[in-house]
Design brief:
Layout lengths: L1 H5 L2 H10 L13 H9 L9 H11 L48 H19 L7 E10 L6 H9 L6 E12 L2 E11 L5 H8 L6 E11 L1
Antiparallel strand pairs: 1-3, 1-4, 2-3
Keywords: Elongation factor, Protein biosynthesis
Family: Belongs to the EF-1-beta/EF-1-delta family.
Protein name: Elongation factor 1-beta
Length: 221
C-alpha cells in the first residue's frame, strides 16, 4: 500500500530524493497531492531527510482542506514504480565490451584486480565532485495601499526579513499611476531553504504598508 511504503526507510528516502528539486508534490503551488502525501506520513520527518522536513513544515502551515487539485499520491511515491529487469542477451550475441560487473566465476585474478581499481578510481573522482547549490533570482513587485504610504519605511520592513538562504539585492521605486509607486526589489534564494510562497506571505504581513506582492521575474541560477 502507498501509505505503508512512505513510512518505510526506502519510501521516506525516495520522498526526500523526489523533493530535492521540487517545492511541491505536483506543480508549482500546494495542492491536494501534497495533502495526500502529508497525511500518508504517520510521523513527522527527521533531519535525516531535510528536503522532506522543509516541505512538511511548509505544507503544515496551510489550510489543507482549501488546497486545490486531486488528492492522490504520485506513482513515483507509491512503491509501485519499479521497472522490470532487462532481458538477458542471447547466448550467441557477440559483444566485445568489457563487463566490469561480470560474474567472479568468469574472470581471472587479473581482471578482478583491474575492475576493483577502476571502481575505486571512479568512487574517488565522484567524491571530489563539488555539490551544486540550486539558487533562483527573483524580482518582486511590492505594492502599497496608496500614494500616502511611506515607501522608504516599507522597503526597510521588507529588507528586515531574514531567512537562511535569502540575500536581498538592488531595489527601486517604480511609478504606477496617480502618484502611486511600487517597490521593485531583487533577491537570490537557495531553493532547498527558502519557499517563495513563504517569503511573499511574510512580506504581506506588513499589512500597514503592503497591499500585495507579485513575482515580476523568476530565473534559475
Amino acid at each position: 500500500m502507498a501509505n505503508n511504503y512512505l513510512n518505510t526507510p526506502k519510501g521516506i528516502n525516495d520522498l526526500n530524493t523526489y523533493l530535492a528539486d521540487k517545492s511541491y508534490i505536483v506543480g508549482w503551488q500546494p495542492s491536494q497531492g501534497d495533502v495526500a502525501v502529508y497525511e500518508a506520513l504517520k510521523k513527522p520527518p527527521t533531519s535525516a531527510t531535510p528536503h522532506v522536513v522543509r516541505w512538511y513544515n511548509h505544507i503544515k502551515s496551510h489550510d489543507l482542506k482549501k488546497l486545490p487539485g486531486e488528492k492522490k499520491i504520485p506513482a513515483a511515491l507509491s512503491g509501485s514504480g519499479a521497472q522490470p529487469a532487462p532481458a538477458s542477451k542471447p547466448a550467441d550475441d557477440d559483444d566485445d565490451d568489457v563487463d566490469l560487473f561480470g560474474s567472479d566465476e568468469e574472470e581471472d585474478a587479473e581482471a578482478a584486480k583491474i575492475r576493483e581499481e577502476r571502481l575505486k578510481a571512479y568512487a574517488e573522482k565522484k567524491s571530489k565532485k563539488p555539490t551544486l547549490i540550486a539558487k533562483s533570482s527573483i524580482l518582486l513587485d511590492v505594492k502599497p495601499w496608496d500614494d500616502e504610504t511611506n515607501m522608504e519605511e516599507m522597503e526597510k520592513n521588507v529588507r528586515s526579513i531574514e531567512m537562511d538562504g535569502l540575500v536581498w539585492g538592488a531595489s527601486k521605486f517604480v511609478p504606477v499611476c496617480h502618484g502611486i509607486k511600487k517597490l521593485q526589489i531583487m533577491c537570490v534564494v537557495e531553493d532547498d531553504k527558502v519557499s517563495v510562497d513563504l517569503l511573499t506571505d511574510t512580506i504581506q504581513e506588513f499589512e500597514d504598508f503592503v497591499q500585495s506582492v507579485d513575482i515580476a521575474a523568476f530565473n534559475k541560477i
